[in-house]
Every structure is written in structure tokens, then in C-alpha cells.
Fold this sequence. Notes:
With about 240 residues, chain A is α/β, with parallel strands linked by helices.
Amino acid sequence: xxxxxxxxxxxxxxxxxxxxxxxxxxxxxxxxxxxxxxxxxxxxxxxxxxxxxxxxxxxxxxxxxxxxxxxxxxxxxxxxxxxxxxxxxxxxxxxxxxxxxxxxxxxxxxxxxxxxxxxxxxxxxxxxxxxxxxxxxxxxxxxxxxxxxxxxxxxxxxxxxxxxxxxxxxxxxxxxxxxxxxxxxxxxxxxxxxxxxxxxxxxxxxxxxxxxxxxxxxxxxxxxxxxxxxxxxxxxxx
Amino acid sequence: xxxxxxxxxxxxxxxxxxxxxxxxxxxxxxxxxxxxxxxxxxxxxxxxxxxxxxxxxxxxxxxxxxxxxxxxxxxxxxxxxxxxxxxxxxxxxxxxxxxxxxxxxxxxxxxxxxxxxxxxxxxxxxxxxxxxxxxxxxxxxxxxxxxxxxxxxxxxxxxxxxxxxxxxxxxxxxxxxxxxxxxxxxxxxxxxxxxxxxxxxxxxxxxxxxxxxxxxxxxxxxxxxxxxxxxxxxxxxxxxxxxxxxxxxxxxxxxxxxxxxxxxxxxxxxxxxxxxxxxxxxxxxxxxxxxxxxxxxxxxxxxxxxxxxxxxxxxxxxxxxxxxxxxxxxxxxxxxxxxxxxxxxxxxxxxxxxxxxxxxxxxxxxxxx
Lengths: 238, 369
């Protein structure tokens, strides 16, 4: 197995205070390796999104260790957490979260702009990323002129344009029909394989199992199972 | 084009109605500040206009004089004492005071008489458009400003009227010598002024002191102060400062103008702040997404401040395009620059509430919205 790009060790996360306090994660350990597409599955309220947020340096764990590319996130300031996200993590959201006032190209470019990447280089890379997701012909379109599947592809291009170590996707296919969902997963599997990127997909969608390198199941804040797909079957899908 | 600029521009223009409201608010604020500050500057210049145009190295003024228009009197003896000082070449009497101008149509209106010896330099009308200074030596001759023709019921050069029951004729006309009060200035000869105001011949309101070219002002002034017991000796800049201080702050006129300008700034700041705040609230998801993507706080500050600056620049352009014709106030280059800086500062300050709001966002909300 390749080295973990992202790792949670015995992570506990408590949300809320007083009587409404909930323990969302109860000692979760999970490592994402480059080149792997991991599906994180579980019922609603099982802690999937909390784990995704902690791995993506958006939330800090109550206890436990999180490492991103070998760097621990313990005791670091919010701005340093932001820098870790900027440098190592690409996010894909269920509802895309594209900027409605920007074109597809500018939406993708934005991920590089926040890294102060020079404009000409950023435009070149953004075009490449859009080509990777098959949207070269929609660069100048605004989100409202794109279908749900196309918007999610733009979101994927935005997530991968900075060449992150890991891509974290929160139910990326739940708002899409079957064909679009399959197409999106195909792109994500391809990114994992070709860019040696660790991809973690939170999902309920059983139609996308076949794209996974492994499937991790979580319930009540604990990892309750893990299946690894046969290497040859993944290669066939890729 | 910078992406920050593009994002800011489009965020602003996304809701055009709100954007128009913002710009109206900014324009209103700038206009209010411009008018108040312009009036303040005009006022500031007008209260010292006579001192500015007098040819004096020093002024001998009655003790406790508050401003140029303060018509107390100094005795002629003070003049002779001044002339006895080495370095003093002239001490020219100036007589000023209020009088009643009888309108040809009946009734009277107050005027402010300004006079000095027309044969030598002193304080004479300037910007003459008709007649000459020499004409003022003719008995009964006066000079008035063309902007007061209606007010004084005259048709200009050659018109007759009465001041204190004495017949006068307009022998010279000036342009742009306006008083900051509603009382018109009337220039005349010294003797005539004494007759109009009722000033004794051995008295004058001020003496303009002129020094020999090689005289040291400070030392002459010091000697004058020693020998003049009933008057003060001021430099022109001190007299200006005193006049300004009296009219702008002693009377409350300056405070009122400042208060108006401050009100404009507050209104502008609140309008822009409210708009930026509500625009930011509308785009909160996008800012949360930016945070989730790892953008620094500095990047987000730039987006919001850029929106504020864009609003400021657009507001200023609109004001600049209309100000010349719509705002009859004094605008100096320094004031224009000051206004630009003030507007920018106002808009940046306004963005604070929006920045605070954005910085409070938990980027985790991107997973729940």
C-alpha cells in the first residue's frame, strides 16, 4: 500500500454542549492512500460528514490525531488550517457550491487564485482541469447555464486543479441521475488513479460501489467494516 | 482582469437595485460632505478676504478686536506713535462700519462701508470691471460689486442712491467681492466713510503699517507693542487667524458646517455598510466555500474591500460628473484629494461589519447547505 496522504488516528469528536451534546465520532481511525478511491458509507447521523470535515481540516477533533501529508493538525491556528486545505485538499460538495456570478473557467481558476497563483498559469491549469472533466466547451458558461452533472464536473475540476494530495467528496452523486452519477464517479476514479490522489467519497449511493478501491462503513461514530475491492476489478473499471 | 476584482464587481452588480441604492447613498453622502466642506472653505476664505487684499505688513487694531468686521476705533495718536518708530514708513488709516443705503424705490438696506485713502495704497476695491480707483476720490463716489445691483436697487455705473442722507453715485463696479454675511460691501474714500458712519476725523478702525524694505518685522512689532497702549499689533496671518476663529468657531457657523459634513459621512458609511453587509449575507455560501477551499482571511478581506472601493469610485465618478454644474461651492485640488480619501476611508470602514460577519462563518456549513 502507498503512503497515507491523510490519516485520522483514534479521532473523537463531540458536537454541541450540555444536554444536546452528541459524540459524532468515537475513536475513528482511517488512512487515505494516494491512488485509492475510498467510499465512506453509513446511515444518516453516523458521522460521515464530520469525519470528512475533520480529515479536510475544516473541523478539529476533540481528541485523537489527524495528519495531512505527514503534518499533524493538532494545536494549529485557523489560518494554518486554511493553508493546509489550500495546499493539500480538494473539496466536492453535494450542492456543488459554484459561484453563480463566475464562469466555469473562473470558478476553477478561483482555487488557484486563493493560492496567489499567477493569472496566466492559473488560466492554463484551469483549462486543463476542465478538459480533464470533459468540459472544455463550457468554459465560458455560467453555472445557471449548466446541467447538474456539468456543474458537478466543474466542482471536480475546481477540486483537482491545484493538484491536491486528497479529494474529499460529500455525496457528489446524490443530486444527479444515474448516468450523470456514474460519469462523475468515473472521473473521480480516473483522478485517483492518474494523479495518485487519495479520493474519499461520502455516499449513500449503492450504484457507485464498483468504482471503489475500498468501502469503509461507519455507524454511530465508529468504523464498523471495511472491504477492499480486488485490484483487477478496479483496473477493469478504470 | 484580477479574479478578486471580477468577483467583487459581479457580487456588486448581482443585485442591481441594491447596487443603485448603494451608489445613491454614496453620492448623497459625498455631495453633502462636498457642499458642507465647500461652504466651509468658501466661508474660510471670505472671512479674511479684506485682510488678504490689504497691503499691510502689520495691522494696528483696537484692543480686543475679534475680526475685521469689528468696528471699534483707534485714536489717531496711535498712528503718530507708530510713525515715530524706526522702520515704519506708513500707517494708513482704514475706516469701516455699517451704514444704511437708501434704495431708489424707498426703504433702506444695511451696507458695510470699507474705506482707505484713495491716493495711497491701503485697502482698495479690486477686480474693477467699470470705473477706476481714481474715480473714488470724487465726492460722493462709491464702488459696489455687480452681484449686489439688485439688492441695492441700482443699475450699475452712474446710478445714484443715498447713504445716511448723503447722495452717492456708483463710480466703480467690482466683480466677485461678496460678503459672507448678507450685507454688501461699499467702498469709498476715507472722508466720505467717516461721514457715512459717523466716525470722528481723529479716529480710525485700523492702521495699516508698512515697513521699510530692510526693517525687521518682529523687532518693529515688538517696539510698536511697547509704545501703543490702546491697541494691538497683529501680523496679517494673526489677524486672519483671529477672524477665522471668531466667525467659524466663535459664532458656531463652522461647527454647523462641520456637523453637516460629519452627518454626510455617517449617512454614507451607514448606507454602504448596510449594503455590503446585506450583499455579503446573500453571498455567505460563497464566502464559506472560499474558506473551505482554504482561502486566507486576507483574500476574503480583499474581496469585500474591493467591493467597497468599487462603490466609492463609482460614487465619486458620478459626483465628479455632476459636481461642476450642480454644486456651486469652492473645490480646491486639496479638497478633491481629501474627498477621495474620505470616500475611500468611509467605504473601507463600512466593509468592517461585512468582514466580521464573514470571518464568523464556519466553513463546515458548506456540507449542510
